[in-house]
Amino acid sequence: MGDQSTLRQRHVDPSTPAAPAPSTKPTISNALLSWDAIDHWRRDNHYITGGYRIDKPSYHHTFLSLRHLHNESVNIWSHLLGAVIAVLSSTYLYTQIKPRYENANQQDVLVFGCFFTGAFLCLGMSATFHALLSHSQDHAKWGNKLDYMGIVLLIVGSYVPALYYGFFCEPLLIRYYLVLIFTLGTGCALVSWVDRFRTSAWRPYRTAMFIALGLSGIVPVAHGVTIFGYSGLDDRMSISLVILHGAMYIFGAVLYASRFPERMGPAGRFDIWGSSHQIFHLCVLLAAGTHLYGMGKAFDYHHTGLGSTCVLN
Ligand SMILES: [Zn+2]
């Protein structure tokens, strides 16, 4: 009895600091939350009704969350593995492919380096963003900026080898189009990174700039067709594959924006597997792989066909 009264006395003693309010969130590290249980700043797609990690401002906690299954697992791992594959394949190409052609030079390495750097940064930053979504609001916002920057870098990095091989005999055009793409890319990076441009009032301009960046490839492709004809440009730049890779991005972006298939329900079916964002990620990987294959063909034509043979006017 005595002990109990002491305990009761201690409980009401005003000098004792108040005990923290009991958390309504589960404390098991791999427990998952429903849409209703997550904080407002984490809410993005209400068709994903569950599978949310517990948020905690800890890198260790974030890292541990990679080990169990939740609604960001596919998004994180798809692009994390993609980033690793980008590094491995660039190393392989550098050591195995380059020595096959005596006339391959530093410019080949440079233009492929631009593509691989863009791909690695895009996939790595995307995986980082998805991992940080359960860290804290500040980190999620910062990760979101990284995610957009990565998209810009991948698009710009993809243009460089296509322009180099496609317009090898028209160096002035390479310069013009590189200035165009770098200007658009810098603009998109600015509106993605600077808080002043990240407001809802700027949303239409941001969207318009990204669409302009993505569609700007139509201009050099159409221009190249008028110079070399479709098959001539296909030999030089693999435009069939360039167009296919663009179509994959557009297909993925349309699914992402329309939130299909999860919007068709039933609720919860696509929380862990098969959501629009995951399909979008796979489209990005397939598109990057297709572009690399296309640039490989352009490289082959450049060094074994007529791609590097320029007729003087
Ligand atoms: Zn993503």
Automatic annotation (TrEMBL):
Residues at which Zn(2+) binds: 130, 277, 281
Biological processes, Gene Ontology terms: intracellular zinc ion homeostasis
A GO molecular-function annotation: signaling receptor activity
Transmembrane annotation, as ranges: 76-97, 109-134, 146-168, 174-195, 207-231, 237-258, 279-296
Primary location class: membrane
GO cellular component: membrane
Membrane topology: Multi-pass membrane protein
Region listing for Disordered, in residue ranges: 1-26
Compositional bias segments (type: Low complexity): 14-26
A Pfam family assignment: HlyIII
Keywords attached to this entry: Membrane, Metal-binding, Receptor, Transmembrane, Transmembrane helix, Zinc
Subcellular localization(s) per the UniProt record: Membrane
Highest taxon of source: Eukaryota
Cited InterPro entries: AdipoR/HlyIII-related
Entry's family note: Belongs to the ADIPOR family.
Protein name (record): ADIPOR-like receptor-like protein
Organism the protein comes from: Emericellopsis cladophorae
Source species taxonomy: Eukaryota, Fungi, Dikarya, Ascomycota, Pezizomycotina
